[in-house]
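User: tokens in, sequence out, please.
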């Protein structure tokens, strides 16, 4: 009895970004949900990724109108960081992705075993479209501008940490950005958090974030993955231009009994000047709150 060999399909792309950035965007669920779609009618609202040999990934893929949806999952069989990933899809097909950096470019070659229900050309076009979407997403991230701010506050670290994040005093020092500024959610690591405010037209807006890290009295990191527009949460599409993968990091250090608070954030060109003007005023307000 003969064995039926499976057809292997290859798709590839070249990305104007470092292999470190490419790798991170490929494996991080917060990034995966932003690029993992072949057309604008589909999206990935949820992604889980346990990147280790024997670990599993599951991407929930859905039509944006809610008419269709399925889980795309598999198990990792090989992980070589910044070089190669291999996995077996839940239907038994095998996939291999290779990453290689040459100069300022990162090359990706993705090979997968074809299924038998759709033409090879259609499968190749679909996987290539997702890879093209990934390239566009990663290259767009290069537009993020890093900003740095500092404040030396005459108060213990524990005071600065608590006043900065406490719901009442957070609203007070961030009122520089928006008089109605507030947040909903938890500062626990991994928690979703909403940063809210009302604009001049009385419409509810804000940002969606996830607390990537929270080491009390040392470090807090927020990754922004969506916006709130008139009360509606948006995590993809044209309104996300300039907001995808922006971030805000707080560090607390003791200096002669005082607290040196440093803030590093990534923003778009559009908001660079705004934050350069407002953030020092916001930190000065936080300083006054802590020193009372």
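Assistant: Sequence out:
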């Amino acid at each position: 009895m003969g064995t039926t060999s499976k057809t292997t399909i290859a798709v590839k792309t070249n990305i104007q970004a470092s292999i470190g950035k490419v790798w991170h965007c490929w494996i991080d669920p917060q990034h995966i949900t932003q690029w993992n779609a072949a057309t604008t009618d589909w999206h990935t609202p949820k992604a889980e990724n346990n990147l280790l040999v024997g670990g599993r990934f599951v991407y929930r893929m859905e039509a944006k109108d809610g008419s269709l949806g399925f889980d795309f999952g598999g198990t990792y069989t090989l992980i070589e960081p910044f070089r190669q990933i291999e996995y077996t899809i839940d239907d038994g097909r095998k996939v291999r992705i290779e990453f290689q950096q040459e100069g300022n470019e990162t090359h990706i070659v993705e090979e997968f075993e074809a299924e038998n229900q759709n033409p090879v050309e259609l499968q190749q076009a679909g996987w290539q479209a997702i890879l093209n979407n990934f390239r566009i997403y990663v290259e767009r991230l290069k537009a993020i501008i890093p900003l740095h701010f500092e404040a030396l506050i005459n108060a213990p670290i524990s005071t600065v940490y608590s006043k900065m994040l406490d719901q009442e005093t957070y609203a007070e020092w961030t009122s520089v950005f928006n008089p109605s500024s507030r947040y909903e959610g938890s500062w626990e690591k991994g928690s979703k958090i909403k940063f809210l405010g009302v604009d001049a037209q009385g419409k509810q807006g804000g940002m969606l974030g996830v607390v990537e890290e929270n080491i009390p009295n040392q470090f807090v990191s927020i990754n922004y993955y969506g916006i709130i527009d008139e009360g509606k949460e948006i995590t993809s599409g044209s309104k996300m231009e300039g907001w995808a993968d922006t971030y805000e990091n707080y560090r607390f250090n003791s200096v002669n009994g005082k607290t040196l608070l440093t803030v590093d954030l990534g923003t778009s060109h559009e908001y660079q000047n705004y934050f350069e003007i407002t953030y020092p005023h916001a930190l000065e307000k936080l300083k006054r709150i802590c020193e009372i």
